[in-house]
Amino acid sequence: MTSELIDFTLVSVALLGIGIYGLAVKRNFIRMLFAVEIIINAANLNIVAFGRFLPHSGGQTMALFSIAIAAAEVAVGLSLIIVAYRMYQNVDIADFRSLKG
Amino acid sequence: MADAVFLALAVITIGSAIAALEMRSLIYGSIALMGTLGGVAGFFFLLDAPFVALFQIAVYVGSIAVLILFTVMLVKRELIFKKIEDKRRKFAGIGLMLVFMVALGAVFLDSGIKTITTDEPAPDFRDIGIDFVTYYWPALILMGLILAGSVTGSLVLARREDVENDQRAN
């Protein structure tokens, strides 16, 4: 293996930055979900990279748990999108204001 | 130093992550998101974790990306192609991204992890299986319950109550 830990970490930092940009700028609910997915993947990449270089099998185990929980999160998020779209006929989060005091 | 495969994977992953957020059409955006998830799976192969890589391909590229694609297709046509954002917010977001990248990158480059290398063999996937059924078994059961609960919850959430059963049959 020729790549080092720092390379994987820097890719992970770049993905995290792109995800934060998406969360801050986009107002489309579906695009915000994309950004959350990108951030989760950056975290998984970091976990597996550190687990490889320690080396310890716990990194891969944690990454598998994380992937499974992320799948659950996406299922709930997408059904929330469908419910909100049905109520407001829009996916702009600025329109979802019924809880605003 | 990074090799050519690593660089190609990094370009694919980061490029398609930007494309997923910036492409005009949400459908092409979700296909670009598939590229990002597949690129991360490639990184897992490079890290000698083939089990996690295949899990990533099966769960993320195989199911989550397709689920997102179907949800996008349920949305009205003009909303798929409409970009909702304002310019000032965009510049602020780019600034925030650069601050995060530069600060975290500087911290990592300055820290000791630059010197970490390993010659030891990668953890075997048999160890992961043993981990799952010995030390982590309560967490594994909890994870199964969470998955079942979230899928049931999302089905209940997305159910339409205004449609009668005979209408549903038609």
Can you describe what's shown?
With 101 residues, chain A is mostly helical. Chain A has a single domain (5-89), classed as Helix Hairpins (Orthogonal Bundle). Chain A is built from three helices and no strands. The mean pLDDT of chain A is 89. Chain B has 170 residues and is mainly alpha-helical. Chain B has two domains: 1-92, Four Helix Bundle (Hemerythrin (Met), subunit A); 123-170. Chain B is built from eight helices and no strands. In chain B, helix 1 packs antiparallel against helix 2 and helix 2 packs antiparallel against helix 3. Chain B is extended and about 65 Å long. At the A-B interface, helix 1, helix 2 and helix 3 of A face helix 1, helix 2, helix 3, helix 5 and helix 6 of B. Chain A: It is found in: Membrane. Chain A: It comes from Nitrosopumilus oxyclinae. Chain A: Belongs to the complex I subunit 4L family. Chain A: Keywords: Membrane, Transmembrane, Transmembrane helix, Transport. Chain A: It is a multi-pass membrane protein.
- Beta-strand portion of chain B reads under 5%
Helix content of chain A: over 70%
- Give me the strand/helix succession of chain A: HHH
Number of strands of chain B: 0
Number of helices, where a helix is a run of at least 4 consecutive DSSP H or I residues of chain B: 8
Rg of chain A (CA only)? 17 Å
Overall mean pLDDT of chain B stands at: 88
Mean pLDDT metric of chain A: 89
CATH fold-level label of chain A:
Helix Hairpins
CATH architecture classification name of the largest domain in chain B: Up-down Bundle
Distance between the termini of chain B: 62 Å
Helix/strand-derived category of chain A reads mainly alpha
Kindly report the name of the CATH homologous superfamily of the largest domain in chain B. Answer: NADH-ubiquinone/plastoquinone oxidoreductase chain 6, subunit NuoJ
User: What is the highest CATH level, the class of the largest domain in chain B?
Assistant: Mainly Alpha
What pair of chains forms the biggest interface?
A-B, 75 and 86 residues
Structural class of chain B: mainly alpha
CATH class of chain A: Mainly Alpha
Catalogue the unreliable spans of chain B.
none
CATH topology annotation of the largest domain in chain B: Four Helix Bundle (Hemerythrin (Met), subunit A)
Transmembrane segments (chain A): 6-25, 32-51, 63-88
Keywords (chain A): Membrane, Transmembrane, Transmembrane helix, Transport
Family (chain A): Belongs to the complex I subunit 4L family.
Membrane topology (chain A): Multi-pass membrane protein
